[in-house]
Amino acid sequence: MIKIAPSILSADFSKLGSDIEKLDKFGADFIHIDVMDGMFVPNISFGIPVIKSIKKITNIPFDVHLMIEEPSRYIEDFVEAGADIITVHFEADRHLDRTINYIKSFGVKASVALNPATPVDNIKYLIKNLDMVLVMSVNPGFGGQKYIDYSNYKIEEVKKLSDKYNKDLMIEVDGGVGRNNIKSVVKSGANVIVAGSAVFKDNKIKENIASLRGEI
Ligand code: DX5
Ligand code: ZN
Questions:
Q1: Which of 17, 21, 173, 208 has the most CB atoms around its CB within 10 Å?
Q2: pLDDT in tens, 149-193
Q3: What is the pTM of this model?
Q4: Which residues contact 152 (CB under 8 A, 6 or more apart)?
Q5: Which of 19, 29, 34, 131 is catalytic?
């Protein structure tokens, strides 16, 4: 089953609660939460207190994408705030193997994100121990960017590693996915699809989720 993970970076923060209730009602599989520190990426979003608040109003698993330097400093805080899956960036952590084990020690799922220019081979030895790999299909930092076409090859490479070493691996794709390309992204091997603008555009969450599913 393909999972849809709406990114609340594209939500209207003046009514975040009601947008989350809609995601709940209209069948989002995960809530994708983009945390940015203004250092790893050139943007600042939101953090631990916001996650804690919205955790009270939904049971949808929280897929927390940490676009922050040295994420190991804050893992425990994000677990306490309600993260169910934690993604750290390959490029942001010098001791990734240790951080993955640390995340898993809390009973939370562990995932590594790869920036567009980062080769898939870099996670070859980690893959058995991962619950998810996130393939960035835009340069991280902002919603609403264009899908980078070579990402499909990278997804295929992750799928090959997954078939060989970890059949249960979730393969997530993040950035620029919409109705026009979701099918090819899934065909390449992705099974968790992040969608920000494609879900929140025109304030039609219900219709947008349904039409994304309709394309798969
Ligand atoms: C980008 C974020 C994405 C982003 C996706 O740094 O990681 O999750 O919100 O937004 P869209 O789907 O609009 O590209
Ligand atoms: Zn993201």
A1: 173
A2: 999 999 999 999 999 999 999 999 999 999 999 999 999 999 999
A3: 0.98
A4: 184, 185, 188
A5: 34
| Ligand 1 site, residue 178, Cβ cutoff 6 A | no
With a 6 A CB cut-off, is 82 part of the ligand 1 pocket?
no
**Pairing state of beta strands 3-6 and 192-195?**
parallel
- pLDDT of 10: 98
Give the distance (Å) from ligand 1 centre to CA of residue 12: 14
Is the C-beta atom of 113 inside 6 A of ligand 1?
A: no
DSSP secondary structure code for residue 46 in this structure? -
137 within 8 A of 159, measured Cβ to Cβ: no
User: Rounded to the nearest 10 degrees, what angle do helices 16-25 and 48-55 cross at?
Assistant: 50
Q: Is 176 annotated as a binding residue?
A: yes
Query: Radius of gyration over alpha carbons of the chain, in Å?
Result: 16
Give the architecture (CATH level 2) of 3-215: Alpha-Beta Barrel (3.20)
